[in-house]
Amino acid sequence: MEPLRDKRRPMSEINVVPYIDVMLVLLVIFMVTAPMLMQGIDVQLPKTDADALNVNPDDPPLIVAVDAFGAYYAEVGEDRSKPLELGALVNEVRKVREEKPGTLVLVRGDTNASYGTVVNLMAALQTAGIQDVGLITETP
Q: Closest Cα partner for 105 from 85, 120, 90?
C-alpha cells in the first residue's frame, strides 16, 4: 500500500496584511508629528519681484516675525512660538548679535500687519545698533 502523501501545495503568495498594518501605523505617526515640525510663525508674506538674497548656510540669519495681530516673535531658541514684547525682542536680537556680530537680521512681516507695527520694530532694532535689517517677501 502507498503511504498517504500531503496533497497540499506550498503557498507561494506573500501575506501583505502585516505590511499594510505597519504602513497605516507609520501614516498615523507622520500625520501627528508633521504639524509639530512646522517652524516659525504663520505669516502671510507680501509678494514682490525682488531678487533673492544669497544667505550662507553656515551662518543662518536671525529672523524676527510680526504676525497679523501685531505680536513680535524671535525665531531663536526653543520658544519660537511665544510672543515677545518689543523690548524683550530687541534684547534677544542684541544678545545674538553680540555672540555673532555678522549675523544678518531679517524681518518677516505679515501682509495684514499694520505698517506702524513693522516700522516700530525696525526703528527699535536701529536704536539698538542693528543697521542692516532686511525684509522677507515671497515672489508672486
A: 90
